[in-house]
Every structure is written in C-alpha cells, then in structure tokens.
Specification:
alpha+beta; elongated; Inositol polyphosphate-related phosphatase domain-containing protein; 7-stranded mixed beta sheet
Length: 622
C-alpha cells in the first residue's frame, strides 16, 4: 500500500499539518517575530524534533497541546509585563492613550494632578486667610506725628475717642447688665475710626447654582449680602477697649436723635406743579430750576406694596419734574435674574405710581440691579442726548475676555435738559462688613467708566447723582451699635460710618456731598417689622442705602430739600431711601439756556435717544 500525504488541518483532533509524516511540522513563516518569541520558538523546535508526529504510527498530541498552552501562557505573561511597564512609565504624551484602557489611565493621571494642584491652592488660601486674620502689627509713631495723622484723617471734631463720645460711654454703663462679659486689657487704647483691611471677593463657585430659578437660592455665599463675614479683629478689639475705658464713667440721660429731612418737614418748600403742561414748561423757563426726586431701594426680590402705598411714601404725584428710581435685587433674586432679568412688572408699577403726566425716558437693567428715569411730559421738547451704560463689577467668569457678572455693579443714565447735562447712577456695591476698600474701588471704577462711556469727548456732567445699596457699614460690634441706637448716640454712629469716613479721607469721593444722615440705619430688618436682624448672624445695623451728588462751583447748583427713609414700607429687609433736590439749569436767565433740546436732537455716544427705551444685560466684558 502506497503512503499518502494526509491533510490534518480538517481533522478536529489535529491542530497541525505536515506534508511529510516522517518529519515534524515546522511553520517558518512566523519565525521573524520579536526576539523574545523567536528564541522561545527555537527552543520549542529543538525539543519537538524528538516528538513522533507520524499519524500512521501514532502522534503524541498531548505534548503538542501542552506546548501550545505553554506558548499562550508565555504571551499572556509578556502582555501583563508590557501593561505593567506602561502603567509605571506612563505620561500624557504616550501614544497608547488612544485605546480605551490607556485613556482610562490618562484620566486617572489627570485626576491625580488636579488633586495635587487643588491641594496646594487650598493650602495657600488657608495660609493667606490665617495671615489676614492675625492682628496687624503697626509701627509706633511719635505723639506729634500721630496728632498730625489724626488731624488729616478725621478733621476737626471728627473723632471716635473717649472724650468725644462721653455720652456713648455712659450709655454703655447703663446697659452693662444686658451685655455679655467681654475680656479686655486695661492698657487698650480708645476706639478710633478703623480702616477695614482689604479682602478679596469670594470666587465664583464651580457650580453657580443648582437651581437658578429658586427664589431663595441667592441666599448662599456667592450672591447675597446675607453672608457677612466675621467682625474684624481690629474693630472688636477697639470696641472692647472702649468698653474697658468707660467703667468709671458717669451715666447720662438718653440723647435726642436729630430730626430727618422727611417729606412732611419740607412740604411747604415743595408745592405741586401746575396742572397744565404749558404752565409746567413756563415755570421752568421763568425759574431756571427743576425739582428732582431720587429713590434707591433694595427690594430683596420681594413683591412691592400697592400703587397707592408707593405713591404716598415715595413718588408723591405731580411734585417733581424728574423722578429717578434705582432698585437692587429688583423683582427677582440675583441668581434668578441671570435667567429672568426683565423688570417689566416693576416698571409698570412705577409708571402707575407716578401717574399719567410722566413718561418713561429710559430704563436699564444689570442682572438684578435696575435704574429708571421718569420725566414730566411737559419737558419732552427740552430733552436730548439720552443714553445709558452698565458697568458690572461682580464675579469674574471669563478667562480670555474677563467677563464679569452683574451681581454687583452700577448703571448710569444721562441726558440733556436744554444745555444742562444730567447723570444718574444707581449701583449695588460689594457686601460684607470688612469690604470697605473694595467698595471704594468699585465706586471709583463705576464713576470713571460710566463718565468715559457716556461722555466720550471728556468733561463732567453739570448735575451728577450717585445712589444705591452701597453696602457701607458701621465700624463696631453688634453690641456697641445696639447701645448706640438705644441711647440714640447719633454723632458716635456717624463718626464710625464707613462711607462718612471714606468721604473725609479717600480722594475717590472728592467733590461729593450727602444730605444730613438723620434717619435711622436702613439695614437689616426682620421681615415686616422695625426690629433689626434677630437671626443667628445678627448683622450690624448700618446705613447701606445712600444718595450722593457731585458739588459744583456754584453752591446753589444742587440744593437738597429732603433726605430720609420710607419707614412705612416693610416688604424688604432694607428701607427705601429718597431725596428731593432743586437743580439750577446751566445758563439760567439767558435767552437760549433751554435751546438744543428736542426728542430727536443730539444723539448720545451710541445714538439711541429714544423715548421709553429699555436696555437689559446680565454681565459686561472688559
């Protein structure tokens, strides 16, 4: 019987095939592989020569299968070693990250790097915060130099010293039983106006808000004034020192709080305007003056009272030629206003409260801050160059464009009445007891950029007003301020009001003036009551809501008639503040001092002199 070549490839029991049964099968096509596999195959071949693969005589298939299994095991070990080496020597630039496993390792590596960076940043911030909270060590000054500094800073009679506040010292003794014991050093100096240290604004959370439409979501740290930081160490020490210095003082009777310039007090000076439009216009031409009403109010995103209550407390129908209404946290919360920033409902309420003789000249919204100008319709032929601009100073959310949110910032509205230019700014400045320096910086920036944007050719406005929730606080502890209010120590509170101190010492406020601050602090009240904050935070009562104006060479250019708070409106934790002013028009008495007006004349920098125009935005790009 002739021998035949047997094809074993189709046999289920034979994984090998050979054309010559007398010789072992060798597949030479795969010998030129990697050095490690090549050496292994050569060793296998040398041992395979002793194996009988002749199917006619019986083949030892068990040995062949064991060799195949050993080879697979070897390849698996090589693969594991390769992966282990990749894990050990892995870098972001490794080409192997294209496959799924390497991509997962790449993500794990990035996550580890982020944790390292975050850990170093947190450690750095903790160290910085620790340094800021540590008591400041000041260099001692000679008595002569110290006297000069005090004179330059606070001026004559502007002192919060023991001698200047004897009434306050006595008041503290009178309520000593109500005050918890405080540890004090006998050698502590008397209290003096303290310059709050500069603090960085809180960074924008990676998750701005899990629910931007939540009405009360802005009560968190990033969007509300409710997150006042701890009292400044210097102020606490000064207050404690003051308490220590009054232990031997005599008790005096309660002082009388000065009377505020309310509307009732000045009703005789502000009569009603003529009923006919022609009479109103003729009165302006004859007198060369207009009556201006400025209102600022942080509404705390609460629904305002009825139209009748608004008209009675704030707008006083047919009394003024110009009515300017600035609001903060208007209609919606700061967080919700990122999405829903329309103030349509509030604007309609203002129009109704002012009455049908007034026209909306311009309104502008910056997130939750709003500014609006109403004018008597008789003045429309005299108006021109209406324009508006918003400057956001809130959270920085851009890297390349430096985009800032409008949770804080200011809005300026300008126009000309005849030849006289007007500017009205309403702003919401940085919160917190210790952020006085930041507020000063924001005041300077808003003032500068608004004027540059609305008066590109340079120069100042003839009549400029600054209003808003400016957030300046009273330097002191809650205990001290409560005693001041109880004993009506008005002079001591004024001397430690941050804005009053800044207007005396900071050149940013040069030329600005304010009416007599004779009304009680306007922040922060319990809901629907006259009680100051009784929550756990017990925020210090303060004059946060203010109205300033820029003085002119002519001392009679702007005259304050009223300046007070509307204490009957209790829908918010702030009280509205109003001011009435008599403004002298430029060139009054000349034949053409009202020339140049007209609803379509002399467009402003953007050419948008349109009666009733409303602008809205939530941020600005620097």
């Amino acid at each position: 019987m002739e021998s035949q070549d047997i094809d074993t490839s189709s046999s289920p029991s034979s994984p090998l095939k050979s054309s010559n049964p007398s010789k072992p099968f060798v597949d030479k096509t795969n010998l030129n592989t990697s050095p490690k596999t090549s050496s292994y195959i050569k060793q296998s071949l040398s041992s395979a020569k002793t194996i009988n693969l002749d199917p006619t005589k019986g083949t030892d298939w068990k040995v062949a299968i064991e060799q195949a299994k050993a080879y697979k095991s070897f390849k698996k070990q090589q693969s594991l070693k390769s992966k282990e080496r990749l894990n050990k020597e892995y870098t972001p630039n490794t080409k192997a990250k294209k496959d799924d496993e390497s991509l997962q390792r790449y993500r794990e590596w990035k996550e580890q790097q982020k944790k390292k960076v975050l850990g170093s940043v947190i450690a750095e911030k903790k160290e910085k915060l620790k340094k800021e909270r540590s008591p400041l060590k000041e260099k001692p000054e000679t008595p002569a130099k110290e006297e000069q500094v005090n004179s330059a800073i606070v001026g004559k009679d502007f002192s919060f010293s023991t001698s200047a506040s004897a009434n306050f010292l006595s008041a503290m003794m009178n309520v000593e039983a109500a005050i918890s014991p405080i540890k004090m050093e006998e050698s502590s100096p008397p209290i003096s106006p303290v310059k709050s240290p500069k603090k960085s604004s809180p960074s924008l959370s990676a998750k701005v808000s899990s629910d931007l439409l939540g009405v009360d979501k802005d009560a968190g740290k990033n969007f509300s004034d409710d997150d006042d930081s701890d009292e400044d160490n210097d102020i606490v020490e000064s207050s404690n020192a003051l308490l220590a210095s009054i232990r031997d003082g005599s008790i005096e009777e309660k002082q009388a709080w000065p009377e505020a310039l309310t509307d009732k007090l000045v009703d005789g000076a502000i009569g009603a305007l003529p009923k006919e439009d022609a009479g109103v216009l003729q009165g302006v031409k004859d007198n060369g003056k207009v009556l201006v009403r400025v209102i600022t109010w942080n509404q705390q995103a609460k629904k305002p009272p009825s139209t009748e209550d608004l008209r009675k407390a704030l707008f006083r129908e047919n009394k003024y030629h110009i009515i300017v209404v600035g609001t903060e946290e208007c209609e919606n919360s700061i967080a919700k206003s990122i999405v829903v920033h329309s103030k349509k409902n509030w604007e309609e309420a203002v129009v109704d409260a002012c009455g049908d003789k007034y026209i909306k000249l311009r309104s502008h919204t910056l997130q939750a801050t709003h500014n609006m100008v109403m004018v008597h319709r008789a003045l429309l032929p005299l108006l021109s160059q209406t324009n508006s601009l918003a400057i956001a100073t809130g959270h920085n959310v851009g890297v390349i464009s430096k985009q800032q949110l409008g949770n804080k910032g200011g809005i300026g509205i300008s126009f000309c009445l005849g030849k006289t230019s007007f500017l009205f700014i309403n702003a919401h400045l940085a919160a917190h007891q210790n952020a006085s320096e930041k507020r000063n910086e924001e005041f300077e920036r808003i003032s500068r950029e608004v004027v540059q944007g609305l008066k590109p050719n340079g120069g100042d406005f003839d009549c400029a007003f600054w209003a808003g929730d400016m957030n300046y606080r009273i330097n002191g502890t809650r205990q001290v301020v409560d005693v001041l209010l109880a004993k009506e120590m008005h002079d001591v509170m004024i001397h430690n009001d941050q804005l009053s101190v800044a207007m005396q010492t900071n050149p940013v406020f040069e030329g600005y003036a304010e009416g007599p601050l004779n009304f009680k602090p306007t922040y922060k009240f319990d809901k629907g009551s006259d009680n100051y904050d009784t929550s756990k935070k017990k925020r210090i009562p303060s004059w946060t809501d203010r109205i300033l104006w820029k003085k002119q060479a002519d001392p009679d250019a702007i005259k304050v008639l009223s300046y007070a708070s509307a204490n009957d409106i209790k829908t918010s934790d702030h009280r509205p503040v109003y001011g009435s002013f008599e403004c002298k028009l430029k060139g009054a008495g000349e034949n053409d001092f009202l020339a140049g007006g007209g609803a379509g004349a002399g467009a402003g920098a953007e050419g948008d002199h349109e009666i009733g125009l409303a602008k809205s935005q939530v941020c600005s790009v620097m």
